[in-house]
Specification:
- The chain is α/β, with parallel strands linked by helices.
- It has 2 domains: 172 residues, Isopropylmalate Dehydrogenase; 161 residues, Isopropylmalate Dehydrogenase (3-Layer(aba) Sandwich).
- It contains 13 helices and 11 strands.
- The longest helix is centred in the C-terminal third of the chain and has 22 residues.
- It is globular and about 60 Å long.
Length: 342
């Protein structure tokens, strides 16, 4: 890996420095050419920074700011009050060329609005789309977008998401002519909203996209498509449902305190379903934490607000992978081959 610098919003998310700093330590151990710009309240972060080695601390620049963006504020108010906040300063570092990308666990809406205002979207992209790799039962991944950046999206924007997702899958998953599907409540042509049906018909006419048709929510992890396109409302609900289902099943199999009979039942079930339990562990949502605002000139990654240190580390890795693969540049170049957006 060439020398890279990431800017992190240390105060973002539910746990702030308590999970961000240990994740930074793990990333520094894994990448000798990596350094960090950290933005947050140094008084709160210092006890965790003290746990780092001297070598790790030399590769960190901590910029103190007590200002944070409350997740309870309306978007317009949060934007007005964002100056000097840890999230805004991390994004500004990217915009000013001080960092190659940034990661934050803060508010998705504020992060997207600030990133779009400070970094700007790629030419011909109306709105960035929150994009992530979701695990599948065969151990591979699918690209899914939008996952919450745009609650509503029209046919034109969904088509943009499809084209960006196609390029993202080509680069990140090393695919040729990725299979694409549109998330819907059924697979028949007459199902879904008018916007979804119109987008479906438009994508069917595209010879430059390997569009297969509709996909339903119960098939998202079956690897029937490499790219799954949807609006932010549907995508966010679907993703959180998947995450919750996997976590709940995993927690069910974990040994917990209880009477001997209950522990014996758990152990027996774990033996019976051992192969499936191992698969579920492989698709642990922590390993797929991080969604990028695809369509910006630089890499901006949103970590789950409730992520632990291990999950936040994977969000850092997700950002690094995109920077190394030059995703913004590849998206910009790749969109040219599609011509004018429909």
């Amino acid at each position: 890996m060439s020398r890279l610098t990431l800017a992190l919003d240390v105060m973002g998310g539910d746990f702030g420095p308590r999970i961000v700093i240990p994740a930074v330590a793990t990333a520094l151990n894994q990448h000798s050419m990596l350094s960090f710009l950290l933005y947050g309240d140094q008084a709160i972060a210092q006890p965790y920074l003290n746990n780092l080695t001297a070598e790790q601390q030399r590769r960190i620049t901590f910029v103190h700011t007590p200002q944070q963006i409350s997740p309870d504020l309306p978007l317009a108010t949060a934007l007005r009050q964002s100056k000097g906040s840890s999230m805004r300063m991390a994004i500004e570092a990217v915009a000013e060329g001080k960092a190659d990308g940034c990661v934050s666990g803060g508010s998705t809406a504020v992060l997207m609005a600030l990133a779009k205002r400070l970094i700007q979207p790629l030419p011909n992209i109306d709105r960035p789309a929150l994009t992530s790799l979701i695990p599948t039962m065969n151990g591979k991944s699918s690209v899914m977008l939008d996952l919450g950046a745009n609650v509503e999206a029209d046919q034109h924007q969904l088509t943009q998401f499809a084209e960006m997702g196609n390029i993202f899958a080509e680069v990140m998953l090393k695919l040729v002519f990725p299979r694409m599907a549109l998330l819907n409540i059924g697979t028949e042509d007459n199902k879904g909203s008018q916007t979804v049906r119109d987008t479906h018909q438009a994508l069917k006419m595209r010879n430059d996209l390997n569009y297969l048709g509709f996909i339903e929510g119960d098939k998202l992890m079956n690897h029937l498509a490499d790219v799954i396109v949807c609006d932010g409302l549907s995508g966010n609900i679907a993703l959180k449902t998947l995450e919750g289902a996997v976590k709940n099943v995993l927690s069910f199999f974990k040994t917990q305190e209880g009477d001997l009979c209950r522990l014996a039942k758990r152990y027996l079930l774990r033996l019976i379903f051992y192969r499936y339990y191992r698969k579920l562990k492989q698709i642990n949502p922590d390993r797929h934490n991080g969604a990028t605002l695809l369509g910006l000139l630089s890499v901006v990654v949103k970590s789950h607000s409730g992520a632990g240190s291990n999950a936040f580390y994977y969000a850092i890795e997700y950002a690094l992978s995109q920077i190394e693969n030059q995703i913004p540049q590849k998206i910009s170049q790749g969109l040219g081959r599609f011509g004018d957006l429909a």
